[in-house]
Amino acid sequence: MTFSGEKAVNLNVVVCHAPGSAVVERALAGVVETGLPGLIMLAGPALGAARVLADADWVPVESGPFMALALSRADPDTAVRRLDGQGLTELRSMVEETYRLSPSIADLALPDAAASDAPDADAAFATWGLYEGDTMVSGVGTSTVGDNVCIWFMATPPGLQRRGYGRRLLTGVLAQCAEQGASTGLLISSPAGEALYLSMGFSVVEHWQVWSRPRWVLV
Known about the structure:
This protein has helices at 22-34, 50-55, 85-99, 103-109, 165-179, 194-199, 214-217, and strands spanning 2-3, 12-16, 39-43, 59-70, 80-82, 125-132, 135-145, 148-155, 184-188, 203-212. It is an alpha+beta fold. The chain folds into 2 domains: 2-64 and 206-217; 72-182, Gcn5-related N-acetyltransferase (GNAT) (Aminopeptidase, 3-Layer(aba) Sandwich), CATH 3.40.630. It has a 10-stranded mixed sheet, with helices on both faces. A hairpin with an 8-residue loop joins strand 1 and strand 2 (12-16). The longest helix has 15 residues, at 85-99. The protein is globular and about 55 Å long.
């Protein structure tokens, strides 16, 4: 369970994976206790307890595959760079445009500690950009857990999409992470992104469902 404390439904998330209804009931109670809008993601055996959420007037809002890729080392792409404070500011603007977020929510999703040169830089959370000359054309955030690197989000401005930037960025980032010791890449794909990730060698581990209250997501 991860709650930002803000009234931003996508930044208050619970993931349920254990079998039986008890874990979903606890997740539901936890969301109610915070008083914040949120999402509950059902994965694996927990999908069998979806009725708990339906009975509480929650609805499924989307589903997508949880995917994995065995990483291998490759020659670095010098156009793919870790972001410093200036690059992080550019990425925030890109995320605002791509996902239609407010500046305050973008700042929350991408804190100052995500910059490589921040005094309190978070070693487990990194941001990256793909550059053409001095212009960032795509960005991604990753988090590292053990030897797994997890893709938190990718953003390419609408006017620059479908040019191969996302593929190139992700390929370069995963290659650098492999060089640093990561062995597996993990992500949750949107339906639109699944074909891209499959073409890159990702395999589907299982499918996850995302549930929420209608008044939180149907706006």
